[in-house]
Amino acid sequence: MLNIVIFGAPGSGKGTQSAKIVEKYGLDHISTGDVLRAEIAKGTELGNTAKALIDHGQLIPDELMVEILASKLDALSGSKGVIFDGFPRTIAQAGALKSMLNERGEDVTAMIELDVPEEELMVRLLKRGEESGRADDNEETIKKRLVVYAEQTAPLKDWYKNDGKHCYIKGSGELDRIFADIVAAIESKI
Questions:
Q1: Cα–Cα distance between 127 and 138 in angstroms, integer?
Q2: What is the 3-state secondary structure (H, E, C) of 32-68?
Q3: pLDDT digits (tens, 9 = 90+) for 146-161
Q4: What is the model's pTM?
Q5: Catalytic residue among 98, 128, 144, 189
Q6: Annotation marks residue 145 as catalytic
């Protein structure tokens, strides 16, 4: 199976590029954001807990996310692979994902890092908030999310470099060029 982790700060284009990767390679897409938003919309206990954390720019506890992802992964049959969008976000989560995949005879094929300057991220996220009405796309929450990303998530780059899976992609510029760079990176890891 082809298992891809797509990685980058909020607003770096993970969702946009994930859709293109899914279409090209026939992968299943597991977006922790989509999973959590669905739970919030249903008003489940998980959804209410997640909403409170997300509204304050916090991350969901690791054990809970790994459990949700394992369940989603196990529900897929005959899959060509998965793109993990929004997970892992910490080194502990990366280790938990590796263990969960290894238990199933799998591993991460590549970690695609979309690197976008912080000023551009702010512009993208504020625009997305205006267009979509997402409550967490406001200046105060965005700043908190970028701090959390820098402190907790950015160290994953080195973790995946040490694991031989890291692929750096300049995430600003023309979408087709970014996608071509992603495809070249994935092909180099297959």
A1: 9
A2: HHHHHHHHHHHCCHHHHHHHHHHHCCCCCCHHHHHHH
A3: 998 888 888 899 999 9
A4: 0.83
A5: 128
A6: yes
